[in-house]
Design brief:
The protein is α/β, with parallel strands linked by helices. It contains 14 helices and 17 strands. The strands form four sheets. Strands 5-4-1-3-2-13 form a six-stranded mixed sheet, with helices on both faces. A six-stranded parallel sheet has the order 8-7-6-9-10-11. The chain has a three-stranded antiparallel sheet with strand order 14-12-15. It binds NADP nicotinamide-adenine-dinucleotide phosphate.
Length: 369
């Protein structure tokens, strides 16, 4: 089978310490300066991915160590260069296909330029992220007893690579979909172009709070580096599927809204006994804050392409075709990948917690009736 590499970067200062424990105790400005100049490096060796029919692959996580804000603010060419260096390191280690994690797939044109310049094919992994995200949203709706056919859904980041396809996949299952982004001109054009094709009511707004206040279901996939979903905006008993990395949902929601179910939508359980090992300290596990055996959906897309010997630039740019999403979703299932257990705010969501969330929603509804 082919081998893969996946470009990662720290989403926060806490992540920097996870990647490189030596950074612990150093001040944030110093860490940010070091990350700005630190060359890309091979962070982890990924082993043990094995399909039910016995095919195996291995790969590497290669860090392009910029923080999200730096990815957006540093000169584009410098950021591309850092990402390309990471892919070159992966190719030298033996990878034949590369995936772009988090903002490395957002910056600029969503992977198109990077794929043109890279020594091996490149995918953003967004097709499988879209499939996993939409499944997670409706799994959450089932758990919370939301009648999706009568529900209003909001997609925040609706003009983006991930958001746009999510709108189309969600629309057949709900009564109304509201599209949200900041750039009104682009949002209006996108929304009007899509309206005729959508099998449900649709509208658009740049006012996130106003949209979220009307939503039973929320899917969020923005490139924001700040919180965009606040507890005071959420409707009683709402379900929020979070795809953005770094996250969009304020941590205050966990504390202040016990009646709302938030789920991280982009996590998949990987077949076999996957392990992540620190390259610089052989035998020491590498921690990315995910449960053992679980990978992000974008990583999983890269793994599936390797397992299928499909070394191609499968997903790039904005305007992702739904056929691509369905194809990689089917290939992932064939190779034994499945939705991971529900999780939010770095913790698993237990059955008891779901029952408590439903009860809190009923109580709040009764109190306001
Ligand atoms: N979980 C996973 O496995 C996984 C995989 C891949 C990517 N991701 C994450 O998914 C997110 C989206 O990626 P993408 O490739 O779809 O990005 P993208 O193509 O750049 O789209 C971003 C979207 O968010 C909107 N947006 C940005 N800032 C916003 C704000 N403050 N409020 C409201 N809307 C805002 C943008 O429109 P405007 O600029 O007009 O606002 C656009 O619609 C990123 O955080 C990425 O890291 C997750």
């Amino acid at each position: 089978m082919a081998k893969f590499c996946f470009v990662i970067h720290p989403l926060s200062f806490e992540d920097v310490v996870r990647y490189e424990p030596g950074a612990k105790g150093k001040g944030r400005p110093i860490i940010a300066k070091i990350m700005e100049w630190m060359p890309s490096w091979a962070a982890a060796h990924v082993t043990g991915i094995r399909t039910p029919d016995g095919r195996e692959t291995e790969g590497w996580f290669v860090a392009a160590g910029l923080l999200p804000q730096q990815m957006l603010e540093l000169p584009r060419e410098r950021v591309y260069d850092r990402i390309l260096k990471a892919i070159e390191i992966g190719a030298e280690l033996g990878a034949q296909v590369a995936g772009l994690g988090a903002f490395t797939g957002v910056v600029g044109d969503g992977g198109v330029t990077i794929a043109q310049r890279a020594p091996i094919p490149v995918t953003t992994g967004n097709s499988l992220t879209i499939a996993a995200g939409v499944r997670s949203l409706f799994r959450g709706a089932d758990e919370m007893g939301v009648d999706a056919q009568r529900a209003t859904a909001v997609v925040v980041g609706a003009t983006g690579s991930i958001g746009a396809a999510c709108v189309e996949l969600i629309a057949p299952h709900v009564a109304h979909v509201i599209l949200v982004a900041r750039n009104e001109t682009r949002l209006r054009k996108f929304s009007e172009g899509l309206r005729e094709r959508l099998p449900c009511e649709s509208s658009f707004t740049t006012d996130i709070s106003e949209a979220v206040q009307r939503a039973d279901l929320v899917l969020t996939a923005t490139s924001s580096t700040q919180d965009v979903i606040e507890p005071e905006d959420l409707r009683t008993g709402a379900v929020v599927c979070e795809l953005s990395l770094p996250h969009d949902v304020s941590r205050r929601v966990a504390v202040e809204r016990p009646d709302v179910l938030v789920v991280e939508g982009g996590n998949l359980r990987v077949p076999g006994e996957m392990k992540w090992w620190r390259v610089r300290e052989p035998g020491v596990p590498f921690d990315m804050g995910l449960p053992v055996g679980t990978a992000l959906a974008c990583m999983s897309e890269t793994m599936v392409l390797a397992l299928e010997d499909r070394c191609e630039s499968f997903t790039l740019g904005r305007g992702i075709e739904l056929d691509r999403v369905r194809e990689i979703d089917a290939l992932a299932a064939k190779n034994g990948f499945e939705l991971a257990d529900m999780r939010a705010f770095d913790l698993p969501i237990s059955r008891e917690q779901i029952a408590r969330t439903r009860a809190a929603a009923e109580e709040r509804r009764a109190a306001s009736a």
